[in-house]
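User: Structure please.
Assistant: Input sequence and predicted structure:
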Amino acid sequence: MQNLGWRFHTNHGTNIVLSNDGLTAERVGGHDYGIVVADQPMVPDVLYEIRIDKRDPQFMFLRYMPCGVVLTDPDHLRLPGTAYRGWGREAVVISGAVYNRGHTEKNNLNDATLNLWKGTRVGVMVTTKAELHLWVNGSDRGVIATTVPTPCFAFFELRHRYKRVSILLSTHLG
């Protein structure tokens, strides 16, 4: 494993507080506006992975953890309430279904980012073939989207039951 030095960008959702030198993000306040984005473009064949450190016990109903890649540099990103409603053609969002730059592509991922527990690891990786992969607990869930443009930035959305996450060391898998 190597540490590529990525952190969460200082441009993040309004209900996010960063700590641990940008390696930990916690949602405070309401249950939305919890988007965090990598502070640098993704390196091909490198897994960008987080660990769920804390869940919010008041949200016991099932909820997804949206994640994926955004194509806009975080310095210029206008953060919406939720990624899949606000970014449209500027993102590939995994949230039950896959929303690839404004179009629903797959609907067979219903359990991939659903009902994740404390300690669960979630990651995204873009390959040199421009394929987006989702990883859960060290398991590759396969190609989620193809022809993903570069540069792109990993993002994770802390909403409802997901309260705090931490960045793990990056893994080069190519």
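The chain has a mean pLDDT of 87.
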